[in-house]
Amino acid sequence: MPEAVMDAAITLTDLKKSFDGGKDFVLKGIDLSIPRGKITVIIGFSGTGKSVLLKHILGLIQPTSGSIKVLGQELSRMSDKDLIRFRTNLGVLFQYAALFDDMSAIENVCFPLREHRRSLPSKEVLEIAERKLIASGLESKHFHKLPSEMSGGMRKRVGLARALALDPEILLYDEPTTGLDPILTEMVDNLIEQTHQMHEGSTSVVVSHDLFAAFRIAHHIVMLDKGKVLLQGTQDVFLNSNHELVQRFLDKGLRRK
Amino acid sequence: MINTWMQKRQQVNQALDDFILVVGLYVVNFVTNTGRAFTFFFQSAPLIFTKPFRFDEVIKHMEFVGNKSVLIICLTGAFTGLALSYQIYLGFLLVNATNLVGPTVALGITRELAPVLTGLIVAARAGGAMAARLGTMRVTEQIDALEVMGVNPQQYLVAPRILASLLTMPLLCGVFDFIAMMGSHFLCINVLGLDAAIFWDRIEQWIDPGDINEGLIKATIFGVVFSAICTSRGYNAKGGAKGVGEATNQGVVNSMVMIIVMNYFITNFVRLFYLVTE
Fold it and tell me: Do B150 and A116 touch (CB under 8 A)?
C-alpha cells in the first residue's frame, strides 16, 4: 500500500461536482490521497478544476457526490456550525492574499487569534502576531501598514502569517505565485518550504500551474486534467511518465524556464 | 396599402411585446431580489443573538449609519419643514384656516415625510456604502477568508449592520422631526407672521404621541429593509468591479422602491390597528 494512502491528511473519494444540475461536471470523480506531513502540489492547465477542488477541501462548496475526509472527518456530513469550527485546523493563503483592507498587517494577523483565542490577553495576541509576521519575513517597520500601502510580496507574507496564526495542521496555498515576477515567485516558494520545515508535521497543499514550483518544493505532485486525476506521485513518476499530456505540460514548463 | 398597414401593425405589436417583456423582467427581478433579501435577512437576524456578541462592530456601524448621516438629515429636515409649511400656509390661506398650518405640517412630517425621507437618504448613503463594502469584500475573497478562518461572515459582517440600522433609524427620524418642526416654526412665526402660541397650541391639540411613534416605527422598519437588501446584494456580488457596481446600484434602487411601497402598506396597517384598538 502506498504511503499516501496509509497516512492521509486529506482523502477524496469519487468526488464529483456539477454547477448546472448534472449536465456538465467540473470534477468527474476525483480519487485522491494527500499525505500527512508532506508538501503536495496540485498542478494542471487552467480550467481543470484545481480551485474548485481546493474549495471542496475547505468546505466552501458541497460536492454533488463523493466523499471528502479532512483529518479523518467527513466534511459533507458536518453541520455549518461544526464546519466553521473545524476550519480552524486549516490555514489558507489566497491568490491575492485576501487581507482585510481596513486593517493593518498586524491587525490582520491578530484577527483570527482574537476570534478563536479569546482568553489570550491582548499583549500576548500582539506578541504572537509579531512572531508570525517576523517568521514570514516581514520587517517590523511594515507592521502597521494597510494592505493598500504594501507590495504584492509583502501582502503574501502577511497573508501567510495570518494563515499560520492559529498553528493549523493543514496549510493550503491557492495559486500563490500567480502574477508575481520570477524573484518574488522564488521568494514565495522558499517561504512555503521554510514554513513547512518550521511547522514540523504540518501538511501543505499548493494549488498551482507553476511546474517549477511543483518540482522545487513538492514531495508529492498531483496533476489534474478535465476534472480527473491524470497522474500523482513523486517527481520521478512525472519525469518517467509517457503520458502525452504530462509530457506536454513538462515540455512547456521546461521551455518557459 | 394593406401591406403597409399590416407592417405597421406588426411593428406596434412587436414594440408592445418588447415593452411588456422589459417591464415583466424588471418586476420579476425586483420580486426575486427582494425575496432573496428577505431570506437573507431571516438567516442573518438570528445571528445577532448568537455568541460572540459583536458590540464593537454594532457601535462602529451605528456611528457610520447614524452619526455621519445627522448633518444631511438636518439639512433635508430643515428645508422640508420650510417648503411644506409654506405650501400648506398658501393652501389654508384660501379658506382662512392658517391656524391649522402647525398641526397639518406636524402630521405630515411625523407620520410620513420624516420616516420616508430619512429612509431614502440613509438607504442611499449608508445602504449604498454597505453594498459596495460587502461586494468588494466578496470579489476580493475577504469573505472567503473569513469563512476559512472559522468566522461566520454573516454574523460578523451582516448582523451588526442590520442591528445598527435598526437602532439608528428611529433616532435619525426623531432628529428629522425636530429639525423640520423648527424650520416650520421659523417660517410660520418669523417670516409669515403667524402666532407662536396658536401654532404650538394647535399642534399640542392635534398631535398624539402615537403619530410620532408611527413615524419612528416606520423608520425602524425601513432601517431593517434597506440594510437587509443592501447587505444581501453586496454579500452575493459576483464578477469584479462591475459586479460591485451593479450590486450597489440594485441595492440602493430596490431599497428605495421597497421603502416607498412599504410605507403605503404600513400606513394602512397602522390606521387599521388604531381603528381596531379604539
Answer: yes
Q: Can the peptide bond before residue B153 be classed as cis, meaning omega within 30 degrees of 0? A: no
Q: Confirm if A69 and A75 have CB atoms less than 8 A apart.
A: yes
Give the sign of the dihedral formed by CA A89, CA A94, CA A98, CA A103. Answer: positive
Pairing verdict, β A8-18 and A65-70? antiparallel
User: How far is CA A172 from each of CA A45, A76, B254, rounded to the nearest angstrom?
Assistant: 19, 19, 39
Phi, psi of A14 (to 5 degrees): 45, 50
- Output the nine-digit C-alpha cell for B212: 410620532
List of chain A residues whose C-beta atoms are within 8 Å of the C-beta of residue B149 = 87-88, 111-112, 115, 162
DSSP for B4-61 reads HHHHHHHHHHHHHHHHHHHHHHHHHHHHHHHHHHHHHHHHHGGGGGSSSP-HHHHHHH
Q: Which residues pair with A174 in a beta bridge?
A: A207
Q: Distance between CA atoms of A149 and A141, rounded to whole angstroms? A: 12
Q: Name the more confident of B239 and A184.
A: B239
Q: Which long-range contacts (CB under 8 A, 24 or more apart) does A238-246 make?
A: none
What letter would DSSP give residue A103?
Answer: S
Amino acid at B64: F
Q: Nearest-CA residue of chain B relative to A92?
A: B148
Q: What would the grid cell of residue B205 be? A: 391639540
More reliable by pLDDT, B181 or A226:
B181
CA A202/CA A195 separation, integer angstroms: 9
Q: In the 8-state DSSP scheme, what is residue B53? A: P
Residue spans of the domains in chain B: they are: 23-48+56-269
Q: Measured between beta carbons, which residues in chain A are less than 8 angstroms from residue B145?
A: 92, 94, 98-100
Q: What's the Cα-to-Cα distance from B258 to each of B24, B40, B42, B164, rounded to whole Å? A: 17, 16, 17, 19
B245 contact partners, CB below 8 Å, separation of at least 6:
none
Question: Please, is B190 exposed, middle or buried when counting C-beta atoms within 10 Å of its C-beta (0-12, 13-18, 19+)?
Answer: exposed
Helix-then-strand count for chain A, H and E: 10, 10
Closest in A96, A115, A162 to B140, CB measured: A96
Mutate: best of A58, A86, A92, partner B, most B CBs <10 A: A92
What does the alpha-carbon distance between residue A147 and residue A157 come to, in Å, rounded to a whole number?
A: 11
Task: Please report, in tens digits, the pLDDT of each residue of chain B (278 residues total).
Answer: 677 888 888 889 899 999 999 999 988 888 888 888 888 888 888 888 888 888 888 999 999 998 999 999 999 999 999 999 999 999 999 988 888 999 999 999 999 999 999 999 999 999 999 999 999 999 998 998 998 888 889 999 999 999 999 999 999 999 999 999 999 999 999 999 888 899 899 998 888 888 899 999 999 999 999 999 999 999 999 888 888 999 999 999 999 999 999 999 999 998 888 888 87
Alpha helices for A25-104 (secondary structure H)? 50-57, 80-86
Nearest partner of A29 among A65, A69, A76, A72, judged by Cα: A65
